[in-house]
Amino acid sequence: MNPLRQRAESAMPGGVNSPVRAFRSVGGEPVYVRSAKGAFLETTDGRNLLDFCMSFGPLILGHAHPAVVEAVRKAAERGTSFAVTTEAEIEMAELIRSAIPSLERVRLVSSGTEAVMTAVRLARGFTGRAKILKFSGCYNGHADGLLVQAGSGVAGIAAASSAGVPAAFARETLVAPYNDSDAAEHLVSRHGEDLAAIVVEPVAANMGLVLPRPRFLEGLRTQADACGALLVFDEVITGFRLGFGGYQGLCEVVPDLTCLGKIIGGGLPIGALGGRAEIMEELAPIGPVYQAGTLSGNPVSVAAGLATLNVLRDESPYAELARRTEDFVRGIRRAAREAGHAVEMPQCGSLFGLFFTDRAVQNFNDVQAADRDRFNDLFHRLLADGVYLPPSAYEVCFLSVAHDPDVLARAAGAFERALGQMVA
Question: 394 catalytic, yes or no?
Fold first, then answer.
């Protein structure tokens, strides 16, 4: 056992501060990293790993981008926390609002979980209702009312998916299959009078990558309007990942509230909630819905986020990133087919997923039916060849601007070797 693992497990639960890092999903020894640059991680034992995890999404510019590093250095020199409003916070809110017009007001928080938790509380305060509708396989943070799974069949009533979540909390959450418009409509028809919000990842990116079916998001907008609930888009992953703004600008479905995180912090902790002014102004200090945070709008996080967003706005790398990702995924599909493996590889912009299955993946049941043992086999073969995927079959792979053609050619070779070595 790695000595760092022994130390970690004696000091932290499971040796980690976030469960997936423990490698329980894929098995084997966890990776320990000491530095990173561009598209590569450097481990404590001296290996250089080509990274397709990219901190689960924030690092669209790559690790340690010079503009971000310099912005963080300058901000830290001025002070790391004030708990007093700064001009940079205002600039961040203005920039987000200009990029995503549905966000008439913006509240910065410290994580994506906090953003969605606040959105749910705000929706309940604004509507005076209790229940929310979410979708199986969509991870919307670990607040009690969201850490749930499908419970009693067609009734859609959720059950807690974690110890420590009271059943009474879970009962206020309804769960429908992602991409199932009929199931969502059924639940809205039964519970619409007490429904505060429909919360959804517009592109599901926490069960692998599952793309929305045509008219699915439009249907949710219609159902929310019909019953008076708020439509909440969880764009913690998709915000500024697929274009300069939210996925809502691409799908042309306008939510009432939007949750952001990851990229807007440039690799530092941050989250944001925004939406219509009449809803957002229900938040304290001018409204009755309470939310607060000492580190909300932290100056170092805001500096990293502004540096990242300014590069994305000025250089607009999205079309090239999507092209590189599409070409790369096409090559892996071909290599898998030639090696006799059935794979589904959804792709959206610079995101892609990989499922060992011979059927289209449209919901969490399809994800669970895929062969995770084969994914784990691929993961370890790639790791041994210097390529690091997210350590779970339920995660999404990310490209950054640092994944240039030479880097991707190297990765493609590793995929071809690994797939060719695996038993079909």
Answer: no
Distance in angstroms (rounded) separating the CA atoms of residues 362 and 213: 8
Radius of gyration of the CA atoms of the chain, in A: 21
Instruction: Sort 364 into a burial class: Cβ within 10 Å, 0-12 / 13-18 / 19+.
Output: buried
Give the active site residue among 256, 262, 366, 388: 262
pTM of whole model > 0.85? yes
The CB density around residue 193, as the number of other CB atoms within 10 Å, is: 11
* pLDDT tens readout for residues 89-141: 999 999 999 999 999 999 999 999 999 999 999 999 999 999 999 999 999 99
Q: How confident is the model at residue 1 (pLDDT cuts 50, 70, 90)?
A: confident
**Cis link prior to 285 (omega < 30° from 0)?**
yes
Supply the pLDDT for residue 157: 55
Which tokens in the block code for residue 219? 């249907």
Q: DSSP string covering 363-422, please?
A: SHHHHHHS-HHHHHHHHHHHHHTTEE--SSTTS-EE--TT--HHHHHHHHHHHHHHHHHS
Please tell me the CATH code under which domain 3-60+317-421 is placed.
3.90.1150.10
Kind and range of the H or E run holding 36 = strand 33-37
- Which residue is catalytic, options 234, 256, 366, 377? 234
Q: In whole angstroms, what is the distance from residue 81 CA to residue 63 CA? A: 24
Which CATH number is 66-314 given?
3.40.640.10
* Active-site residue, 194 included: no
Q: Is 128 exposed, middle or buried (0-12, 13-18, 19+ CB in 10 A)?
A: exposed
Residue ranges of the chain that CATH labels 3.90.1150.10 = 3-60+317-421
Alpha-carbon distances, residue 210 vs 100, 286, 386, 395 (angstroms): 23, 39, 27, 11
- What is residue 152's predicted lDDT score, i.e. its pLDDT? 43
Helix or strand or coil: residue 135? Answer: strand
Helices and strands (DSSP H and E) totals, the chain = 14, 16
